[in-house]
User: Which sequence fits this backbone?
C-alpha cells in the first residue's frame, strides 16, 4: 500500500504544473481578455495548491518517514523517470503554490485597468 501511495504522489506531482503550462501557452494574446486569463491563472494555481494538499496527505499516510524514489511499472520503464518525493519537495511545492495563489489575486486589484494585465498572468503561469 505505501508503494501505491508513493506512486500516486509522484504522478500527482508530475500532473500539477500542466494546467499552468496550458494556460500560459494557450493565452496567446492575453491582453485582449485579461479577466479570463486572470481567472484561468487563479484556477490553475488553485489546482496546484489542492494538489500540494493531496500530496502532503499521501506522503503523511505512508509508513516510512523517508520514502524511497518511485519505481515505475514495467510498461513505462523505458521512460526512465525518477522522482523523489520527500518533505523538502513538499515544502517547496507549498511555497510555489501559495505564491501562485497570492500573486494573481494581488495583481487583479493592483493592475485593474492596465492594458498589459493579461500578459502578466500569462508569464506568471509559465513561470510558476
Assistant:
Amino acid at each position: 500500500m505505501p508503494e501505491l501511495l508513493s506512486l500516486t504522489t509522484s504522478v500527482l506531482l508530475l500532473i500539477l504544473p500542466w494546467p499552468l503550462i496550458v494556460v500560459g501557452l494557450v493565452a496567446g494574446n492575453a491582453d485582449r481578455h485579461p479577466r479570463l486569463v486572470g481567472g484561468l491563472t487563479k484556477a490553475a494555481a488553485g489546482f496546484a495548491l489542492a494538489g500540494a494538499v493531496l500530496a502532503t496527505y499521501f506522503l503523511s499516510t505512508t509508513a516510512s518517514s523517508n520514502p524511497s524514489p518511485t519505481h515505475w511499472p514495467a510498461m513505462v520503464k523505458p521512460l526512465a523517470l525518477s522522482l523523489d518525493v520527500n518533505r523538502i519537495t513538499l515544502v517547496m511545492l507549498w511555497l510555489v503554490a501559495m505564491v501562485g495563489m497570492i500573486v494573481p489575486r494581488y495583481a487583479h486589484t493592483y493592475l485593474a485597468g492596465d492594458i498589459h494585465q493579461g500578459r502578466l498572468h500569462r508569464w506568471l503561469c509559465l513561470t510558476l
